[in-house]
Every structure is written in C-alpha cells, then in structure tokens.
Amino acid sequence: MSPAPAPRPALAVPSVPRSYVRYLQAKLLEAEAGLTAMNEKYDRTKARFDRCYARRGISPETDIVNYINAKSINPELKFWYGKVEHFQREVAAYGAALTGLDAARRLLGDDGYRVQEHGRPRNRRALNRAG
After folding, report:
1. Residue of 37, 73, 33, 28 whose CA lies nearest to 53
2. Are 37 and 117 in contact (CB under 8 A)?
3. For 22, 57, 77, 128, which has the most beta carbons within 10 A of its beta carbon?
C-alpha cells in the first residue's frame, strides 16, 4: 500500500489592486453614460429620418424596401449607430472584466474548490457524484 500523498500547500490568492478595480468601475460608468448619450442621439436622428421619409410616403408600413434602402445609405444614421455599437462593446468589455475578477476572487478564495487532500477522482463518474 502506498503512503498518502503529502497535503498540498494552500494556494495563494492573487490580489488585484483596488485602484485597478476602481479604474474598471469608473470606465464602466463612463461607457454606460456614453451608451445612453449615443442611444439618445441615434434615436433623435432616426426619428428625424422617419419623419422626413414619412412625408415622402416611405415608411416600414408602406414601403419597406425603399425604407430599408434609404436607411442603409444614410450616413448620419450609420455614424450614430456605429457610436452606439462602440459603447455597447465598451460596456460589455468592462463589465466582463469586473465580473471575471469577482468570479476569480470568489473561486480562488473558496476552499471548497481546491483539490481534496486524498487526490483527484479516478473516473468520470466520480466527478459527477454529489459530494
């Protein structure tokens, strides 16, 4: 019978500087504010576009093909929608970074996650067994 493996030393939980977390939080708030502003500008521009084309008898309800064509070639709508997409990506990126840092902190700080002292389960069924 082989001797039991020596207990593994506890993993050190890496520390993320609070200043970095505050930086990410501030950037997230900036991105959210930018997204709100760009959404408002896009909505105003699209409303103006819709009114202009409705006067010509072109709307999604009356002439969807010409409406979509006109909308796709309108440079102002493209510009503001591009800004909306930019801020959506920023919100997603900063939000994901903060979520990932929080998940890593919880995961690494939780003793239940570490490998048990008696070693890893030997088969797949042991991994799925409720402990």
Report:
1. 73
2. no
3. 77
